[in-house]
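To fix ideas, we give here one paired sequence and structure record:
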Amino acid sequence: MVINTNSSAARGARFLSESTSNLQRSLAKLASGSKIVDPQDDAAGLAVSSRFDAQINRTEATRSNIGNAISFKQTQDGYLAKVSKALDRMSELGVMAQDATKTSTDKGLYKLEFDSLQAYVAGVATQKFNGVTLFSSATLGVLQDDLGTTLFSAAAVDLAASAGGTALTVLDTTTPKTASDLVKTAIDAVASMRAGVGADLSRLMMTNEHLSVLSENLQSSVSRIKDVDVAVESAKYAKYNILVQSGTAMLAQANSLPQSALRLLS
């Protein structure tokens, strides 16, 4: 029996310290919802999840770009649909102007509507989307992956060259047939443009779905690495809580053992 050194109390204090530390870590994991609270919890897992987090952010940014490109192409198609309707009417006017029973005055009225629709088509050719020209000879380059290396070039839609004001002869009493033929050519050109826009939209939407699946899988991977299993961790928390309480009680008992030496001294 010794007084200066209480080995039982020292051992009990060590066990209590370990249990308290484990309880605090378990509590932090349950509070944060993550099983990697400190780097030492899983150093490799922390590195992998950090890279995945960065890739998820890049993927979401790419999806945003794809979404904007889809809106751009949908806006193009919306304008082209109206241009197609205008050209249909212009084609009708061109045929009506070839009616031999119509007077010059009648044909002049057809010309007024024809010129108005032609100006509308020419005006559409100059429209912009967020400051970017909708209809030009330049292709639209859209990133398809989070690395910024794969570029999809959406087809150029040059409305001014195919159906703008310079491409259509003004309908008058001497050239209605020529104007009608040019409008037919413009109708074919716009139909081809809409088909191209539709193909681009199909590709962009497929890419958007692919990126959505990729982001979902990456998030699941990060979850398996970082997210805490609440059921498992709750069981650990209950265990460490009991160990802390019992360790505290036993340390109190161990600290009282040297007092028995007083009986020998009395």
Notes: The chain has seven helices and four strands. Confidence is low (pLDDT under 50) at residues 164-169. The longest strand covers residues 140-143.
